[in-house]
C-alpha cells in the first residue's frame, strides 16, 4: 500500500454476522485523512435468557466516535427499528446530519425522538432519485420494495468507483404500499459499472420468489369476509401495506377497523400524513369495540412477536381494558415469529385457543410474506447489477456463507466475507479485508448504556441460575464476633436433596468457619469474607448440587 493514497473502504460495525443493529461505514481518502459516511444506525432485541434485564442492544460505535469530526452524515435506508432504532441513543455521540426520506424521518420523529429526554437530532429529508454530495461522496437513494414504505438502496459514488448498498429489499410488482424494485434503475447502475454490491442475505437459503403483498391482501380479504364474528389481525406495526390491506378488506365487507396499540397508532398517523392510507376512513378507537356488532368489526393489534405488554398479549390474558374475544372469534397472525420469539408467540396462541378463538397463522394460510429476497430474486439483482465484488451483509454466519457461494455461482469474480469490525478495502487493488477494528455491543440497562465487558450481565446470568446467599457478620477490633451473623437466601430451594433446610446449611457453614478462625485471622475482614464465601458455596453444593453467588460482608465494630 502506498502511504497517503486515497482508498475506498467499507467497515460494518453491526448487522454482519447477526440480524439487527445495522450500521455500516464507508470511508474515502488516505488513512490519516479519511472522510466517512454511515448507512443506518439500528438496534437489536436481547433475549431474556441470554441477557437478563436487557431489552435493547446497540452497535458499539467507538471507532467512528473517535473520528466523528470526519463523519459527514448518517443515511437511513428505511424506518425499521433494526436500521433506525439506535439513533436516539447514539446520535449524541456523533452529532452529524441524519438523512432520511419523509416517511422514515416522520416515523423517527414520532416514535423515538418524541420521548422525554430525546435528543434534537439534525434530521434532513432526502428524496429518492436525487443525488446529494457530501464531501467526497455522492449519495443517491434508489427505491426498492420492502415491508415498509420508502425503502431504498443507496448508490455511493466516489472517485474510486460506485458501490451499491441494497439495504433490505425484495422484488414485488404489486406491493400495496410503497415502491417496486425497478429493473431499469438497477440495470442502469450496472451499466455504469458497480465496484461492489453490499447485499441483503436474509432469505438466501430460500428458493424461488417471495409471494407478493397483493396475494396476502387477497387472503386477508377472504378470511375477514368469511369470518362469522369478530376478527383481530396482528402484524408488525410498521407494515403499512398490511394495515392498508386489512382496512380495504374490512371496507369491502362493511366492517369497521379499530387500531389498538401505541406503536400502531404512531405508524398509522405517519402513513396518513404521507398519503399511504388515502381513500380509507379513519379508524375507530379501542373503546368503540363493545359498541360495534360482532360481525362488523376488525381489530388491528400490536404484539405479533409475543411482546408481553402489547395489545394482543393483554387480550389473550383477558386483561385488556377495551378489547375482549369470545368463542368463535378469529385472530389472524399476519406475521412470522422472529427467531427467539417462538415461545412467547406460542403461549399467546395457546391462550387464545383455550378461549375458543380460531387462530390463523402463516402455517395454514398465505397471511404473511417476507420483505427480503429469495434466491430467484437475488439472481435478478445480480443479473441487473453485474458487480465486480459482492459483500454479503444483513445475516448470521449461515446466511453470509451461503450468500458468498451464491454470488460466486452468479459469476462474481470477487467475494469478500466480512464480519462486524472488518475493514474491507474496495479500491485500489483487489477488494479484501485489510484490518479489523473494535466492534461490539452496547446494552440498554434501565436508563443507562453498558458495554459487553460490564460485570452486570454475567452476574445476573449467574444469579438466575443459582441464586444468592447473603451473609453479614459483625466483628470488633479485637477479633470477637458480635451476635449471630445475619443470613438470607434468595432464589435457592427451601430444602436440599435429603430434606435439610438450606438456610440451616448456610448458618452451620458460617458458624463452623468462624469458629475455626483465630482472633488474628478474624481481624482480617477480607480474609474472613473469602473463607466464609468458600465454605458456604461448598456446603450448599454438597446438598443441592449448585454453587450460588455469595455476598459476605464483614462489619467492623
Question: What labels describe this entry?
Answer:
557 residues; 7-stranded mixed β-sheet; 26% strand; globular; 8-stranded mixed β-sheet; 29% helix; alpha/beta; 16 helices
Structural summary, described in words:
The structure is a single chain. By secondary structure, the chain is α/β, with parallel strands linked by helices. An 8-stranded mixed beta sheet has the order 8-7-6-3-2-1-21-22. A 7-stranded mixed beta sheet has the order 9-10-11-12-13-19-20. A hairpin with a 2-residue loop joins β23 and β24 (about 450). The longest helix has 20 residues, at about 525-545. The protein is globular. The relative contact order is 0.11. The model has no long low-confidence stretch (mean pLDDT about 95).
Topology:
Layout: E1 7-14, E2 23-29, E3 35-39, E4 44-45, E5 56-59, H1 62-65, E6 71-75, H2 81-84, H3 87-90, E7 98-100, H4 102-111, E8 123-125, E9 131-134, E10 137-144, E11 151-158, E12 161-165, H5 183-192, E13 194-200, H6 213-226, E14 231-234, H7 240-252, E15 256-260, H8 262-273, E16 297-301, H9 311-316, E17 330-333, H10 342-354, E18 358-360, H11 375-385, E19 389-393, H12 397-409, E20 414-415, E21 422-427, E22 432-436, E23 441-445, E24 448-451, H13 456-466, E25 468-475, E26 481-490, H14 502-515, H15 519-522, H16 525-544, E27 549-556
Amino acid at each position: 500500500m502506498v502511504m497517503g493514497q486515497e482508498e475506498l473502504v467499507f467497515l460494518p460495525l453491526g448487522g454482519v454476522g447477526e440480524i439487527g443493529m445495522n450500521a455500516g461505514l464507508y470511508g474515502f481518502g488516505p488513512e490519516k485523512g479519511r472522510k466517512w459516511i454511515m448507512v443506518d444506525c439500528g438496534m437489536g432485541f436481547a433475549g431474556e435468557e441470554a441477557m437478563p434485564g436487557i431489552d435493547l442492544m446497540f452497535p458499539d460505535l467507538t471507532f467512528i466516535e473517535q473520528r466523528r469530526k470526519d463523519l459527514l452524515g448518517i443515511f437511513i435506508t428505511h424506518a425499521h427499528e433494526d436500521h433506525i432504532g439506535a439513533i436516539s441513543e447514539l446520535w449524541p455521540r456523533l452529532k452529524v446530519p441524519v438523512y432520511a426520506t419523509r416517511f422514515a424521518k416522520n416515523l423517527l420523529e414520532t416514535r423515538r425522538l418524541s420521548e422525554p429526554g430525546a435528543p434534537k437530532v439534525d434530521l434532513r429529508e432526502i428524496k429518492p432519485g436525487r443525488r446529494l454530495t457530501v464531501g467526497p461522496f455522492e449519495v443517491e437513494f434508489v427505491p426498492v420494495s420492502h415491508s415498509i414504505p420508502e425503502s431504498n438502496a443507496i448508490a455511493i459514488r466516489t472517485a474510486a468507483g460506485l458501490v451499491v448498498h441494497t439495504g433490505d429489499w425484495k422484488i414485488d410488482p404489486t406491493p400495496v404500499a410503497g415502491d417496486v424494485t425497478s429493473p431499469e434503475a438497477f440495470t442502469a447502475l450496472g451499466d455504469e459499472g458497480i465496484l461492489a454490491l453490499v447485499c441483503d442475505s436474509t432469505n438466501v437459503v430460500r428458493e424461488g420468489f417471495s409471494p407478493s403483498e397483493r396475494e396476502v391482501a387477497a387472503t386477508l380479504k377472504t378470511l375477514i369476509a368469511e369470518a362469522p364474528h369478530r376478527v383481530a389481525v396482528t402484524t408488525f406495526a410498521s407494515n403499512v401495506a398490511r394495515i392498508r390491506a386489512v382496512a380495504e378488506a374490512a371496507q369491502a365487507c362493511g366492517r369497521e377497523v379499530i387500531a389498538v396499540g401505541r406503536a400502531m397508532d404512531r405508524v398509522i398517523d405517519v402513513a396518513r400524513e404521507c398519503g399511504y392510507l388515502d381513500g380509507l376512513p379513519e379508524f375507530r378507537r379501542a373503546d368503540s369495540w363493545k359498541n360495534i356488532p360482532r360481525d362488523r368489526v376488525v381489530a388491528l393489534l400490536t404484539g405479533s412477536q409475543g411482546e408481553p405488554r402489547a395489545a394482543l398479549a393483554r387480550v389473550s390474558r383477558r386483561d385488556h381494558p377495551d378489547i375482549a374475544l369470545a368463542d368463535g372469534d378469529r385472530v389472524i397472525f399476519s406475521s412470522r415469529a422472529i427467531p427467539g420469539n417462538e415461545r412467547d408467540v406460542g403461549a399467546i396462541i395457546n391462550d387464545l385457543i383455550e378461549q375458543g378463538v380460531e387462530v390463523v397463522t402463516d402455517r395454514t394460510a398465505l397471511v404473511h410474506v417476507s420483505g427480503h429476497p429469495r434466491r430467484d430474486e437475488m439472481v435478478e439483482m445480480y443479473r441487473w447489477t453485474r458487480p465486480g465484488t459482492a459483500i454479503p451483509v444483513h445475516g448470521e454466519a449461515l446466511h453470509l456463507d451461503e450468500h458468498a457461494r451464491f454470488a460466486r455461482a452468479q459469476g462474481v469474480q470477487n467475494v469478500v466475507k466480512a464480519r462486524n469490525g472488518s475493514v474491507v478495502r474496495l479500491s485500489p487493488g483487489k477488494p479484501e479485508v485489510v484490518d479489523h477494528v473494535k466492534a461490539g455491543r452496547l446494552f440498554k440497562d434501565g436508563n443507562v448504556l453498558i458495554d459487553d465487558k460490564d460485570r452486570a450481565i454475567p452476574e445476573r446470568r449467574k444469579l438466575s441460575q443459582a441464586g444468592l446467599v447473603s451473609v453479614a457478620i459483625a466483628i470488633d477490633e479485637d477479633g470477637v464476633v458480635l451476635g449471630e451473623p445475619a443470613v438470607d437466601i434468595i432464589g435457592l430451594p427451601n430444602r436440599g436433596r435429603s430434606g435439610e433446610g438450606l438456610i440451616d446449611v448456610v448458618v452451620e457453614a458460617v458458624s463452623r468457619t468462624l469458629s475455626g478462625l483465630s482472633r488474628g485471622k478474624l481481624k482480617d475482614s477480607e480474609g474472613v469474607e473469602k473463607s466464609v464465601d468458600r465454605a458456604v458455596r461448598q456446603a450448599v453444593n454438597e446438598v443441592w448440587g449448585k454453587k450460588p453467588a455469595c455476598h459476605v460482608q464483614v462489619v467492623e465494630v
